[in-house]
Amino acid sequence: MALHGADPASQADGMDSNRTRIAVIYATAQGSTRDIAEFIAADFAARGAEVELHDVAHAPALSRFDAVVLGSAVHNMDLLPAAVAYVRDHRAELTPARVWLFSVGLGPALRGPIGRRLGRTVPKKIAALRDSIAPVEYAAFAGHYERAGVSLKARTLFRLLGGTRYGDLRDWAAISAWSAGIARALSLPQPQATTVHP
């Protein structure tokens, strides 16, 4: 999906060479990561960037872009298999690119002394993948966690580790601040419209 900033003019490849070109690529399991990717892409478009939003299965060639934002849900302390495969298969393109990486899981939502410590720790598999492409920055965000369908054992562990509630745990202010930081790094102007989270 292409999102266009203020100037709709484009060249033959569909991208305006005068504007910053950003690919926002994501792997999602239940939609939380997609929502965050859509929010970030809309913020960049509101700042006049030429943005393409794709899931990893339909990601475009990266050579057309000035920057890449790559996000994935976290399951079992690792990025989704589709995101891991994408990084493995495109490492040669990702390594020299300006890449920002984010993950969406429960860690950032945990509270209490144990939960906060665990929430600040990047799981080993994610750290290894992150380090393999040396992104400009990595951020971990809380996602959406529903109680329905979760075993008693998993619910108990969630509570012991500092999980305080279920539902939408995303911190939209933190996501917005991270997106704004990327925009500053890319010298994008202030947004022409306010991007509202879902």
Automatic annotation (TrEMBL):
Family annotation (Pfam families): Flavodoxin_5
SUPFAM superfamilies noted in UniProt: Flavoproteins
Biological process per Gene Ontology, one example term: heme biosynthetic process
Domain of life: Bacteria
InterPro entries per the UniProt record, alphabetical: Flavodoxin/NO_synth, Flavodoxin_CS, Flavodoxin_dom, Flavoprotein-like_sf, Protoporphyrinogen_IX_DH
The Flavodoxin-like domain, residue ranges: 22-198
GO MF annotation: an example: electron transfer activity
Name of the protein described by the UniProt record: Flavodoxin
Organism: Nocardia arthritidis
